[in-house]
């Protein structure tokens, strides 16, 4: 059996909540003012996409570093479509990987593919609910 994760959530005020898990780092989440939120943090569904970006991003960074590929900067941009009706799940997610530097294309593609097919558990989980597409850009 794998690692057990425990999450604790506390209401701060209205829809503003704070939560932490095994890492013990608190995260603020909130909702829109029209639903008694205070715009004090990302929405929970936004955090799912941020978690996806973090998961696959850390994979790609780690793989490029292990390959000893030098680069100046790395970014990910995600765009997602949500269902119109409740529950408003993500139906399509597009991940764009952007690396800055003289990075060999084959190594960048390999790092992205390894994250997608082997290492990123967030992508594996979300792909069961949404269509996930990817693209990349190398900016020299």
Written description of the protein model:
The protein is an alpha+beta fold. Helix content is 31%, strand content 31%. A hairpin with a 6-residue loop joins strand 2 and strand 3 (27-29). Helix 1 crosses helix 2 (105-119). The longest helix is centred in the middle third of the chain and has 23 residues, at 44-66.
Quick overview:
The chain is α+β, with helices and mostly antiparallel strands and 140 residues long. It has three helices and six strands. It is 31% helix and 31% strand.
Name the beta content range: 25-35%
How do the strands line up in the largest sheet?
Answer: 1-2-3
Mean pLDDT across every amino acid position:
97
Q: Which overall shape is indicated by the principal axes computed on the Cα atoms? A: globular
What is the terminal separation in angstroms?
44 Å
The secondary structure category is alpha+beta
Unreliable spans are none
Order of helices and strands: EEEHEEHHE
Write down the Rg. 17 Å
Task: Compile the SSE list and pairings.
Layout: E1 8-13, E2 16-20, E3 27-29, H1 44-66, E4 73-82, E5 90-100, H2 105-119, H3 121-126, E6 131-139
Parallel strand pairs: 5-6
Antiparallel strand pairs: 1-2, 2-3, 4-5
Task: List the defining traits of the structure above.
3-stranded mixed sheet; 3 helices; alpha+beta; 3-stranded antiparallel sheet; 140 residues; globular; single chain
């Amino acid at each position: 059996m794998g690692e057990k994760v425990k999450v604790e959530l506390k209401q701060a005020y209205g829809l503003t909540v704070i939560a932490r898990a095994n890492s013990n780092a608190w995260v603020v989440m909130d909702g829109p003012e029209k639903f008694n939120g205070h715009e004090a943090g990302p929405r929970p569904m936004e955090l799912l996409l941020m978690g996806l970006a973090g998961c696959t991003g850390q994979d790609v960074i780690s793989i490029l570093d292990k390959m000893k590929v030098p680069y100046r900067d790395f970014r990910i941009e995600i765009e997602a479509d949500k269902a119109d009706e409740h529950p408003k799940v993500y139906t399509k997610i597009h991940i764009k990987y952007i690396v800055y530097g003289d990075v060999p294309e084959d190594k960048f593609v390999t790092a992205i593919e390894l994250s997608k097919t082997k290492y990123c558990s967030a992508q594996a989980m979300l792909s069961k609910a949404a269509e996930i597409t990817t693209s990349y850009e190398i900016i020299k």
